[in-house]
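To whoever is on call:

I kicked off a structure prediction for a single chain this morning and the downstream step that reads the tokens threw a length-mismatch warning. I double-checked the sequence; it's 399 residues and nothing unusual in it as far as I can see. Pasting both halves so you can look.
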Amino acid sequence: MSQHDARVIVVGAGPVGLVAALRLDAFGIPCTVIEAGSGPQRDLRASTFHPPTLDALDEYRLAAPLIAQGRKCPDWQIRIHETHERVVFDLGLLAADTRHPYRLQCEQFRLCELLADRLGRTPNVILEWGTQVTGLHQDADGVRVDAATGGAGRQFTGRLLIGADGAHSVVRGAIGIEFSGKTYPETTILATTRFPFHDHLPGLSNVNYVWTREGTFSLLRLPAIWRCSLYPDVDESIDDAILPESIERKLQRIVPNPAPYEVDEVRPYRVHMRIASDYRVGRVVLAGDAAHVNSPSGGMGMNGGIHDAFNLSEKIRAVWNGEGLEILDRYTRQRRPVAAEEILVQADRNRARMQERDPARRRALFVELQRTASDPELARAYLLRSSMIEGLRRAAAQS
């Protein structure tokens, strides 16, 4: 390969791809980031940063500016709407395990913008916005990417490639990796509003998962808005469920408001639980949603992808410094079991709990959660898993 080819190609400039590029740059490894969008996407996506993710970002002085744009959440809760009963999990119990014993609610695009600004000022990283990957080829020496920018064909070459291009990954399809799993039957409707729920619902946390007689909803508070996860009513089509009058009706059930709710954005989305059969084929490796997708309940998807990027970049540094490609299989051994057996399982369990409709079963679940939250030892163990600290420790212990 020529000197021009001595770089890593990253496909996808979401938080996973940009964190991978940040790490590679810190290791002195040149990389090219290819992104179909014209810049960091500002649409409604992830908004939860867990403690170990903030710890990792802090290594690159990115935690503080991110925290300044978000809202700290020292606890989170599961509520019964009609009675205001609640189980509260105190993240302060993790003070000995993390430098950031809280969840941060902050839109993922804010991290992407911080990363893009940082990477745009380093000569080691080339950001190719508005560029769509159309093909991928690899051989014993490197990888070639066929792409198009503004309709003009282009080629990029490198020694290795990271596919961080999301759930509909072109990279994963190009290397023929199976993406097995399931799609959940329900559609989630994400709506944002500036209505002050915290002034109307007693004891509300900044992160709330709520049972109601009609079903379930969640409320997550960011600095200026509340993100409300809602669901279609029984026999209501998705098209009807996202109409302004339907969103209004659902929000009025949460807190009756004499004035109509002012809703900033609405986004419906289907939820999937899938994982790639392998994370690597030759010189191409998958990370983030390209490798695994899960229910957003618990906010584990983006965080797991960032953890992938930190782990994978270490293995790429080893290859860059002369180790064989087989070291990349250690990344799969470390990260795939965590995704399959912890992230996907925990997110699936969270989703199933909130979708439970049987009153007796709900009460039993609620009592069990109360017992866990009231016992500091049990609560800390629960939080180590739900905050993803345990998964990172498990990955580090795997050779």
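Update from on-call: the warning came from a stale cache, not from the record. Cleared it. Sanity check on the structure: The first strand starts at residue 8 and ends at 11.
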